[in-house]
Design goal:
elongated; mainly alpha; about 60% helix
Length: about 170
């Protein structure tokens, strides 16, 4: 095996030396061959990029934005234990602003992101239900039996969406 590796390395080295060595005539001026000025160098073919190589991954950009909007250590989810609070409404507003931007980025990316799109739909539904029920500012929203507690689908969804983006990008 070691002899094979040495032979391959030697062959590659000689091939590279042969490509750059020219004709071996060191006294000749570049382009001194007859017709040299009429020839153009052979262009190196550029590999055709695959769709996945040409498209940026969204997770490195949008994951940190989602995390910042949701607050560190689950602050948004904790705040939404009281759905009526200004803090909860603020986290919902901030998270959904990021989610709207992410949805636009997904749409223009040319990639499917099926799991992320489904998660975004669930989050939009939870936000709409929160707004329709008038949860922000309503003390009854804090009742454990209130349907307003469904808003945690937005705050928890931000963390889930971060992982879902990663899953979609690696096609699993």
């Amino acid at each position: 095996m070691r002899q094979t590796a040495t032979a391959v390395l030697l062959a590659v080295t000689l091939a590279l030396a042969g490509c750059s060595g020219g004709s071996g005539d060191t006294d000749a001026e570049p382009g001194a061959e007859p017709g040299a000025e009429a020839r153009s160098p052979t262009p190196t073919p550029t590999p055709t990029p695959t769709p996945s190589a040409t498209q940026e991954r969204l997770r490195p950009v949008w994951g940190p934005r989602l995390e910042a909007a949701a607050g560190k250590g689950g602050e948004g989810t904790s705040a939404c234990h009281r759905p009526s609070s200004d803090a909860c409404a603020g986290y919902v507003r901030d998270i959904m602003a990021v989610v709207t931007g992410l949805a636009d980025a997904i749409r223009t990316s040319g990639r499917a992101y099926p799991k992320a799109r489904a998660q975004i739909a669930r989050m939009k539904h939870a936000q709409a239900a929160y707004a329709a029920a008038g949860c922000h500012g309503d003390p009854a929203a804090d009742d454990p039996d209130s349907r307003c507690h469904g808003v945690v689908a937005v705050t928890i969804g931000a963390s889930t969406l971060d992982v879902t983006l990663l899953t979609d990008e690696f096609g699993r």
